[in-house]
Amino acid sequence: MDTRPIGVFDSGVGGLTVVKQIMKVMPHENIVYFGDTARVPYGTKSKEAVTKYSKQNVRFLLSKEVKAIIVACNTASSNSLEALRETFDVPIFGVVVPGVEEALRSTKNKKIGVIGTPGTVRSGAYERMICEQDSEMQVFTKACPLFVPLAEEGWTDNEVSRQAAKRYLEELDAFCEEQKRVQGEKQKEFKANHPELFFRYPKFSKALAKVLDPSDEIRPAATEEQIGNQESVLDFTLPSQVREFFLLTAGIQASTGVILSLSGMFDLTIQGGRYCVLGEFWKEADGDQLLLRPGEDTIWYYAHEQDKVKRFCNDMTELLEKKLTRYLNEQ
Question: Which is nearest to 190 in space by CA: 221, 219, 212, 222?
Answer without folding.
Answer: 212
